[in-house]
């Protein structure tokens, strides 16, 4: 008897329908958390859940759940990701994992497969970070505090509480979204890679072994604003030259203190006063550093801090930084990694075990349950862009891999994963 397969034309229709929601004239998708685009996408998802004859549930963090064979007693096999996007984002980042999870539930229901564990699909709220990121999964994992909820705000100063109140929601109810550890049997997430490794290697799927941790700093260097023509070079206290020196040290720091999985990025720079004929007295910049090992990440933080401090003393600059975010790395469950690899081999899929260089809800869920991730290739490594895409055949392969893994974990009569 051949294994059951997902209804791929139906999944295609879902992807195309959802990608039209929030699409703007720039061809990018705008479904930032608690915006009109996000609300429209959530309504669409709720309709698909109910249309499929599944149980719908919304928790206090506004996470949307679809449930099959739910009884509130047996631990569930949970699949998920997010429907919100970055500004002008692509059609698959996050959304693909939610839609594949929904399709797995529909396929299992229609096939009449008896289940040892209920199945759930979840759309986690604000993964992309309008209010800091990973809000929905942090709520489920019990990582939120009243202070975190109160202080969360976007770049325009809108608070999370205000945004949720505009939808008639109480942000503090997110504290009640916490799930007991024994209520989840396992968590699986399918996601586009958001990088070029699978695409360049012609792999159909990736099995994630570890998810990167990161720290993000906002750094300020203060020197002296002065005239560009009358101030000799050896008499300047130029804050930008401090940044230039520090940026030139990044590769050395990674080589000496990092690993092959280390990444460091200066993605934003601000110069003041910002005039072409003025030595900048102020330079502010972001520093984003990532690695899959917590000790390596700590060593990198120490090395970057010492390098900044030494440079600032040498150049007579004032130096300070604020920690914007810290997310610890997580390893995926070895048993789930092996299960996904075995199922990929059984499906004759060319696959690769690899780390994730991006943060995901999966690393938050890994703090309360065993967690596994499937990657599908991103064409040319593109993501967070309207050019983001994955070939249809790779989406189908990844979705069927998810289905087979879920059946092994949840279907009655299947061998249980130890």
Descriptive labels:
metal ion binding, Aminopeptidase, Alpha-Beta Plaits, 2 domains, metal-binding, 5-stranded antiparallel beta sheet
Give a structural overview.
By secondary structure, this protein is an alpha+beta fold. It has two domains: 8-212 and 329-410, Zn peptidases (Aminopeptidase); 213-327, Alpha-Beta Plaits (2-Layer Sandwich). It is 34% helix and 22% strand. It has helices spanning 8-19, 36-51, 95-111, 135-140, 146-151, 160-165, 197-201, 239-248, 250-257, 294-314, 334-346, 361-365, 392-410; strands spanning 55-58, 64-68, 76-81, 119-123, 184-192, 205-211, 213-222, 226-227, 263-265, 269-272, 278-279, 282-291, 318-327, 330-331, 351-356, 371-376. The strands form three sheets. Strands 1, 2, 3, 4, 5, 6, 14, 15 and 16 form a nine-stranded mixed sheet that branches. Strands 7, 9, 10, 12 and 13 form a five-stranded antiparallel sheet that branches. It has a two-stranded antiparallel sheet with strand order 8-11. A hairpin with a 5-residue loop joins strand 1 (55-58) and strand 2 (64-68). Helix 1 runs antiparallel to helix 3 (95-111), helix 3 (95-111) crosses helix 13 and helix 11 (334-346) packs across helix 13. The radius of gyration is 23 Å and the shape is globular. Belongs to the peptidase M20 family. This is N-carbamoyl-L-amino-acid hydrolase. Residues 213-312 form the Peptidase M20 dimerisation domain. InterPro entries: Amidase_Cbmase, Bact_exopeptidase_dim_dom, Peptidase_M20, Peptidase_M20_dimer. Zn(2+) 2 binds at residues 93, 128, 384.
């Amino acid at each position: 008897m051949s294994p059951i397969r997902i209804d791929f034309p139906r999944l295609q229709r879902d992807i195309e329908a959802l990608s039209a929601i929030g699409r703007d004239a720039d061809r990018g998708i705008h479904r930032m958390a608690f915006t009109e685009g996000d609300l429209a996408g959530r309504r669409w998802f709720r309709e698909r859940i109910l249309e499929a004859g599944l149980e719908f549930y919304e928790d206090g963090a506004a996470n949307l759940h679809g449930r099959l064979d739910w009884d509130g007693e047996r631990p569930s096999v949970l699949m998920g990701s997010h429907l919100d996007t970055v500004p002008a984002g692509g059609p698959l980042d996050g959304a693909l994992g939610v839609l594949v999870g929904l399709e797995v539930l529909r396929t299992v229901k229609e096939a009449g497969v008896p289940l040892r564990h209920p199945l759930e699909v979840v759309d986690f709220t604000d993964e992309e970070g309008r209010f800091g990121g990973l809000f929905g999964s942090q709520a489920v994992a019990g990582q939120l505090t009243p202070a975190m909820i109160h202080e969360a705000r976007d770049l325009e100063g809108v608070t999370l509480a205000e945004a949720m109140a505009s939808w008639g929601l109480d942000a503090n109810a997110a504290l009640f979204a916490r799930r007991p550890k024994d209520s989840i049997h396992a968590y699986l997430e399918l996601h586009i890679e958001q990088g070029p490794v699978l695409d360049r290697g012609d792999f159909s799927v990736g099995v994630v072994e570890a998810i990167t941790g990161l720290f993000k700093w906002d750094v300020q260097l203060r020197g002296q604003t002065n005239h560009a023509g009358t101030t000799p070079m050896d008499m300047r206290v130029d804050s930008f030259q401090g940044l230039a020196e520090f940026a030139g040290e990044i590769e050395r720091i990674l080589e000496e203190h990092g690993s092959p999985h280390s990444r460091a990025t200066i993605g934003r720079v601000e110069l003041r006063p910002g005039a072409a004929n003025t030595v900048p007295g102020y330079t502010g910049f972001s520093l984003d550093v990532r690695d899959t090992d917590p000790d390596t990440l700590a060593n990198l933080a120490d090395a970057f801090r010492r390098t900044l401090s030494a440079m600032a003393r040498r150049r007579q600059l004032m130096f300070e930084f604020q920690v914007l975010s810290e997310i610890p790395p997580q390893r995926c469950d070895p048993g789930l990694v092996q299960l996904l690899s075995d199922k990929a081999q059984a499906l004759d899929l060319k696959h690769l075990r690899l780390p994730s260089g991006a943060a995901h809800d999966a690393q938050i869920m890994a703090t309360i349950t065993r967690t596994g991730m499937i990657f599908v290739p991103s064409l040319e490594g593109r993501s967070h862009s309207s050019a983001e895409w994955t070939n249809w055949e790779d989406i189908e392969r990844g979705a069927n891999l998810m289905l087979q893994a879920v059946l092994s974990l949840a279907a009655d009569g299947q061998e249980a994963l130890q």
